[in-house]
Specification:
This protein has 181 residues and is α+β, with helices and mostly antiparallel strands. It is built from four helices and six strands. It starts with 5 loop residues before the first strand and ends with a helix.
Length: 181
């Protein structure tokens, strides 16, 4: 048996928008910010879920909230396809049938504890950057620096690049076709 049921607990991202339709119905639209349980980098990741409702009670509840207020919604996942055959646009949203205040124990979920990671071993690769000194505890292996000749004038590019024009051979004289024939 197929089921299309969505239950989300999250925070209102911004004030909802009401859109009157030609049929006389009012479509209320908003976004719900939902935190993911954990992320492999230890960062907090969120999803912004577009929500809509035609239900007047759910719309009135959402309109009574301020941005960042927590709520629980129940509804169904919807996909709308727009545009010509060659350039279809797919929109996904949750069509909300019920919205209410979130239970206090799910509104502020503590982050799951994670085992601390082992530190990376010291880098043995060449570092890039402007700092000429290696970090504390690391040695830097460098070859001898090329000798620099003092130049009183010229741009930094001309000073740092070899003379490219000197390596190009001079052009050969053009062959005169009137004398050759």
């Amino acid at each position: 048996m197929d089921r299309n049921e969505v239950v989300l607990v999250g925070r209102l991202s911004a004030a909802p928008e009401d859109k009157p339709l030609p049929s006389g119905d009012i479509l209320t639209k908003w976004r719900l910010i939902v935190r993911r349980p954990h992320h492999r980098n230890g960062q907090t990741m969120t999803d912004s879920v577009p929500c809509t409702t035609f239900d007047p009670e759910a719309a009135a509840f959402v309109r009574s909230l301020r941005p960042r207020d927590t709520m629980e919604i129940k509804g169904a996942f919807r996909c709308h396809v727009y545009g010509p055959t060659a350039a279809k646009i797919w929109r996904y949203e949750v069509e909300v049938s019920m919205a209410k205040e979130a239970p206090p124990d799910t509104a502020e979920q503590p982050r799951p504890s994670r085992r601390p990671r082992k530190p990376f071993p010291p880098s043995r690769t060449r570092r890039l950057g402007n700092n000429p000194e290696p970090p504390e505890g690391q040695e830097c292996r460098r070859g001898p620096a090329p000798p620099r000749s003092p130049e009183p004038s010229g741009s930094a590019m001309a000073r740092d690049m070899p003379d490219v024009l000197a390596s190009i051979p001079p052009p050969r004289p053009a062959l005169d076709l009137a004398q050759a024939g």
